[in-house]
Amino acid sequence: MALFFAFAVGGLFYVKWSPYYAKAFFAAQHHTLGASILSGTKAAPPTVGWQAGLAYSIAYLKAIWQALLLGLALGAGVEALLPRAILGRLFTGSAASLRATAFAVPSMMCTCCTAPITVGLLESGASPTSALVYWLANPALNPAVLVVIGIVLGWQWAALRLVMGLALVFVVGYAATRLVPPGWRVTHAPRPPSGTNEHFLLAWVRAFIRLAVRLVPEYAVLVFALGVLRAWLFPEMTPAIGHAFWLGPALAAAGTLLVIPTAGEVPIIQILQHFGLGGAGAAALLITLPAVSLPSLAMLGRALPLRAIVSLGFGTFVFGLLAAAAAATLGLP
To answer: Cα(295)–Cα(50) distance, rounded to whole angstroms?
Structure first.
């Protein structure tokens, strides 16, 4: 347990805390995080094709590979190193969701890099509610991203993200849990029987390999496919399209599907606003882009019933619509 928590703190410092501390200062100085992973500095993504998918996959992998390795290692550590009795006490019961949120906020991971840890929690006896709250709170309530949003987009946008993010975490998390049958337990990863002499490091490596083999191939395929098709998901932005009534629902759906690295929604919104994106569409992306994605939902697909996975995606889409309506009502630019 001591090794696991030391590894978690050291890994998060190296992969998340230190880089995003520096990014906050960069954003404060330049009021931008740079080019958008979606379209660079242009009004539209590149045309549909293999080259677009390859370019997106490479850019995305360069941004998240360290966090993905850390997520796989921590997910394997949850399964192999932490006593299930302690996990059961921490992540079941009336206060489990609050404890899950407290662990999630400093993790600051994107939805895909959090998915292996969530699978590890589910396979180790944590309640589905606490595991899903942990999964959703990581990207939705990321404190570093909230600071960057305030600096780059404006503090009213950071307030909208915080309020809608809190509501999404608990409402969507609880709604999806109600679709998980009582007594649901994941049985993909039985631990070695008690009394075996397997060294804990070997158990950790074995769990890491199993998680990687199960989760990474389909994840990579979906990232590539979304990179290929992103021009169909996001129209070329103009002032006329940017304020069209239909754009909010369209971007809420696209944001629910697309996978981005941590804080990737900030430059995407900033670049599209430059070409005419209105407040409703920006708010839809602000909520849906970080919360879930098609690859992250697929990564949870073997640990939860299909109807719960669909509920997570649809609930995120609905909150994107609510955010768009809130932005339009408040007159956010």
So the answer is: 18
**pLDDT tens digits, one per residue of 153-202:** 999 999 999 999 999 999 999 999 999 988 776 655 445 444 456 788 89
Residues 140, 108: Cα–Cα separation, whole Å: 9
Q: Tell me the C-alpha distance between 299 and 166, whole Å.
A: 23
Helix (H, G, I), strand (E, B) or coil at 193: coil
How many helices (H) and strands (E) are present in the chain, helices listed first? 16, 0
**CA distance readout (Å), 105 to 186, 255, 297, 310:** 25, 22, 20, 25
**DSSP string for residues in 212-224:** HHHHHHHHHHHHH
Residues with Cβ within 8 Å of 328's Cβ and at least 6 positions away in sequence, in order, are 248, 279, 280
Spatial distance between the Cα atoms of 84 and 124, rounded to a whole number of angstroms: 6
For the stretch 216-275, pLDDT in tens is 999 999 999 999 999 999 999 999 999 999 999 999 999 999 999 999 999 999 999 999
Task: Single out the residue of 289, 279, 280 nearest to residue 316, CA to CA.
Answer: 289
Contacts of residue 312, defined as CB under 8 A and 6 or more positions apart, other chains included, come to 132, 136, 172, 176, 292, 297, 300
Q: Which two tokens stand for residue 169?
A: 């975490």
Domain boundaries, the chain: 2-182+215-330
Segment 77-100, tens digit of pLDDT = 998 999 888 888 889 888 999 999
- Burial class from Cβ neighbours inside 10 Å (0-12, 13-18, 19+) for residue 30 reads exposed
Q: How far apart are CA 17 and CA 46, in angstroms?
A: 32
Give residue 86's pLDDT: 86
